[in-house]
Amino acid sequence: MRKATFIFISFAISLLSYANIAITRDLNKPRPGDNIKLYKIPFIINLNDTSIIDLSSIKGETDYNITYNQFKDSLLICSQNREVEIFDDLGDSILLISHRKPGLTLDYIIPEVAFKYPFSKGENINGVFFAEGTRAMRDYARISGSYTLSADNNVYTLITPEADTISNLLHTKYIRHGSTIIDNDFSHSYKFGDSTVILPDSIMWHLENDSITHLIECHCLYARGYRYPILETRLHKVLYYGSTIDSSFVSLYCSKSLQAHDLASDPLNDELRLDDATNAFRNNFRDITNTKSRNSFSNDSFSPNNDDNTAPLLPEEETCDICLSENSNHININYSVSPDCVVAVTLHNSAGALMWQASEVAYDSQGNISYPTDDLVAGEYLVTVFLKNSQYSFKFIKK
Fold first, then answer.
1. Which of 56, 235, 254, 261 counts the highest number of beta carbons within 10 A?
2. Rounded to whole angstroms, how far apart are CA atoms 246 and 235?
3. Where are the alpha helices (DSSP H) in 80-184?
4. What does the pLDDT look like over 126-179, one tens digit per residue?
5. Quick one: how far is CA 84 from the chain centroid?
6. Residue 35 belongs to what domain range?
7. Closest CA to 363 of 258, 280, 226, 281
8. Which helix (H) or strand (E) holds 281?
9. What backbone phi and psi angles, to 5 degrees, belong to 207?
10. Is 0.70 surpassed by the pTM of this model?
């Protein structure tokens, strides 16, 4: 009983924190097997400049893939564009402990905090890191530096390339300032035995005095119910005695539909997305009163109640039919909507208890959602389908 109470309280805290715009372990921690497809879009200079980011006229150019895989017990591998990062999962935080890319291998003696859970509006963390390794398998390489991760108190709204508006977004900013040393003497610094080089004061001294440095600035916008940032911008500068000698920058967009379909299913994320779709419909259709019957049940084990099977009059581009499969053990919902619309389905019993729910994003204009009825006891049930601009309600009786 004590364990069950603890789980319930932890779950409630997670939900409450996200209601106040927070990133939590249950909702946002990377999952082994996740393959994220990002699209490169024109670079957005600074997300702090405005509270509304309009991407409605922008189309993604090239794909940018990130893959997560499990390694041993608590280690997580992130692969992206021929680079591999290895993270240690501590539960409340994820630490970067190793970095591999062509021509460079680095192991972190002082790990870098990649993320902390939970992380809320107005919060910030900072620290230092130190890594050593090799370049071109022969030269000694060292990177040390400091980082700051913060979430501001502003409220952001994003208009996506699909013309979908997402409000109440959390904006995080990650600043990483590091110094880089390359030496053809492999027996250098810490490898030589000088442990003072990795003390925090020493790392700050290196930031001020090492000749080659780099600066990374990353901005992310997180949406409720979605694991990874919807929008991310990355700026990378290489500095030589304070002057920029090279720079690269990119903005990356990860659509809600890709996150809902291509990532490993998670009940909590799915529930939040379904709640949002349901609330959006209720807000948009609060005043609809003109309804008509849309009933297509025809089976001996189910008796339709025609008086209550109603749905709003729909725009021509949205239709929905609910029927039983030929073997009478599934409810099938066939719909026709505009692409990228969120389709949500709920099933309640006569007492109002939620028996089943599902949601998906329509990639094409037509789709199907199916639910087995074998496990339903005799009684009255209500199926409700939420489309972008309409709702279907269907009441039936299982004998």
1. 254
2. 11
3. none
4. 999 999 888 877 788 888 999 999 998 888 899 888 878 888 899 999 999 998
5. 20
6. 2-262
7. 258
8. helix 267-284
9. -60, -35
10. no
